[in-house]
Amino acid sequence: MDVAGVVSAVSDTEAGVPDESTVQDDITTQAKEAQQHPAFYSDATAYWSSVPATVNGMLGGFAHISAPDVSGSERFLQSIFKMQGAPGHARAVDCGAGIGRVTKLLLQKHFGKVDLVEQSQSFLDRAKESLQNSNKVGSYLCLGLQHFSPEPNTYDVVWTQWVLGHLTDTDLEQFFRRMASGLKPDGVIVVKENVTSSGMVELDEKDSSVTRPESLLLKIIDDAQLKVLRNTKQTKFPEGLYDVKMLCLKPK
């Protein structure tokens, strides 16, 4: 998903320019309408089919943020393992795994087995090449997250990063519910996502995704009967990018 800001219009109703609140409402409405369009998912599939299977491709041209991203995720994951009733280290799943960057640089270091879920077969093929010498990979599953339904009591950690904006609000809530049912008793869901600072849901027409404000993301989480155990902001990213939040979730 691309990481870009949205410049809002200056309020000037006398000049015939919509005021800021109207512009914000229009942007949010556009994003909500896009989620209801039948092409919301197919357009995203078409976009990613044109993206090279490289780290730079996965990160929308921001390959240089990979190192601080992994460092931030490492610290966050370590803090989760220090919690009372912490998850185990047996099995994790990398949701929206792309070419396996997160699995290779982070998850395989902490879990006995890691499953990768990714809708692009070409990305999964690249992940297999990248991880061919690893004995930590369980399954490579080629399907969209709206169709992923793990078996009960399977995962210690469900890891989702920069992918949930490709799910509609309704599908995201249902995704969270299915992931919760797939957790072991002390298992958790980790969400690492961009959030808007405008309070709006912002649509990226290029890759057919939305970026939600944190308030909406938390509402969907609550509606899915999950509670937030940790809420941390990613640091050491360049200025001009969306804020990135890391959340640790558990069923209520």
From TrEMBL:
GO terms for biological process: methylation. GO terms for cellular component: cytoplasm. InterPro entries: MeTrfase_NTM1 (IPR008576), SAM-dependent_MTases_sf (IPR029063). S-adenosyl-L-methionine binds at G96, R101, L145, Q146, Q161. GO terms for molecular function: N-terminal protein N-methyltransferase activity. Gene3D superfamilies: Vaccinia Virus protein VP39. SUPFAM superfamilies: S-adenosyl-L-methionine-dependent methyltransferases. Its EC number is 2.1.1.244. It catalyses: N-terminal L-alanyl-L-prolyl-L-lysyl-[protein] + 3 S-adenosyl-L-methionine = N-terminal N,N,N-trimethyl-L-alanyl-L-prolyl-L-lysyl-[protein] + 3 S-adenosyl-L-homocysteine + 3 H(+); N-terminal L-prolyl-L-prolyl-L-lysyl-[protein] + 2 S-adenosyl-L-methionine = N-terminal N,N-dimethyl-L-prolyl-L-prolyl-L-lysyl-[protein] + 2 S-adenosyl-L-homocysteine + 2 H(+); N-terminal L-seryl-L-prolyl-L-lysyl-[protein] + 3 S-adenosyl-L-methionine = N-terminal N,N,N-trimethyl-L-seryl-L-prolyl-L-lysyl-[protein] + 3 S-adenosyl-L-homocysteine + 3 H(+). It holds the Pfam family Methyltransf_PK. The keyword Amino-acid biosynthesis does not apply. The keyword Ligase does not apply. Keywords: Methyltransferase, S-adenosyl-L-methionine, Transferase. Belongs to the methyltransferase superfamily. NTM1 family. This is Alpha N-terminal protein methyltransferase 1. The lineage of its organism: Eukaryota, Metazoa, Ecdysozoa, Arthropoda, Crustacea. The gene is ntmt1.
